[in-house]
């Protein structure tokens, strides 16, 4: 209850950003839903109903819970400023997207963020949470679409590689033009202060360009590459359990 009250207070001071965030979320969900319907129709995959729909809801709930727990275990990397922390909460998200489709993956991503906000509140005026959601979607949408077109290990690898590259490039753009400026505005801290934290880690960082190239890009590349690698290693066995066709 206390967290909810604090969230409402922060929301009142950041209404414009929240409205923009909600609009972008709606666009992402709508576009992914439309694209998934086209793909399902193209490959002749009917929507699951009845017991399968119940199973899908259970899978989404379980994976969302796991994602929230994994989000609690985060750690900084030696080459990036301390406010960039690595976690593996995207792992259950991409597994859900591979199992049930891109829209399910986005749903798990959204539930993860909402539950984390309700449990832990926000220390970033919602900017960090929005970035986490957006980056997660940028990663899982191309990865799961490639996999859904033809479910094979090769397509899974291609999709994850494409998702990793797109997420890395998007992270650079977002940090330079949206996130760091918004952090600066929300907390009344000059952007130069964030860049200075990067310089403490890597002396070659002198400005925004070198900051995103030497800190942001490697951070996201490593994060999504690790998530991709773990997904490839465990997905086959995990999917059997989730789909209910696991045999000893």
Automatic annotation (TrEMBL):
Q: Which UniProt keywords apply?
A: Cell membrane, Membrane, Transmembrane, Transmembrane helix, Transport
Q: Which family does it belong to?
A: Belongs to the prokaryotic riboflavin transporter (P-RFT) (TC 2.A.87) family.
Q: Does the keyword rRNA processing apply?
A: no
- Membrane topology term: Multi-pass membrane protein
**Stated name of the protein:** Membrane protein-like protein
Provide one Gene Ontology cellular component: plasma membrane
Subcellular location field: Cell membrane
Annotated transmembrane regions: 15-35, 56-79, 130-150, 156-180, 211-235
Which N-terminal stretch is annotated as signal sequence? none
């Amino acid at each position: 209850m206390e967290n909810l009250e604090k969230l409402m207070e922060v929301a009142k001071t950041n209404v414009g950003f929240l409205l923009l965030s909600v609009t972008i979320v709606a666009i992402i969900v709508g576009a992914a839903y439309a694209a998934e319907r086209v793909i399902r129709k193209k490959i002749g995959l009917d929507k699951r109903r009845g017991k399968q729909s119940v199973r899908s809801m259970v899978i989404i709930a379980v994976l969302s819970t796991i994602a929230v727990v994994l989000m609690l275990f985060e750690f900084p990397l030696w080459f990036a400023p301390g406010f960039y922390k690595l976690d593996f909460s995207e792992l259950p998200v991409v597994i859900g997207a591979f199992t049930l489709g891109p829209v399910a993956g986005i749903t798990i991503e959204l539930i993860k963020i909402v539950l984390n906000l309700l449990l832990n509140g926000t220390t970033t005026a919602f900017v960090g949470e929005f970035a986490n959601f957006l980056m997660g979607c940028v990663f899982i949408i191309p990865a799961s679409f490639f996999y859904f077109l033809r479910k094979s290990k090769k397509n899974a690898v291609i999709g994850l590689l494409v998702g990793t590259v797109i997420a890395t490039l998007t992270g650079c753009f977002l940090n330079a033009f949206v996130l760091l400026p918004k952090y600066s505005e929300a907390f009344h801290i000059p952007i130069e202060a964030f860049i200075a934290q990067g310089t403490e880690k890597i002396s070659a960082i002198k400005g925004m360009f070198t900051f995103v190239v030497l800190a942001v890009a490697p951070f996201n590349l490593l994060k999504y590459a690790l998530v991709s690698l773990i997904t490839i290693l465990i997905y086959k066995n995990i999917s059997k359990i989730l789909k209910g066709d696991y045999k000893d």
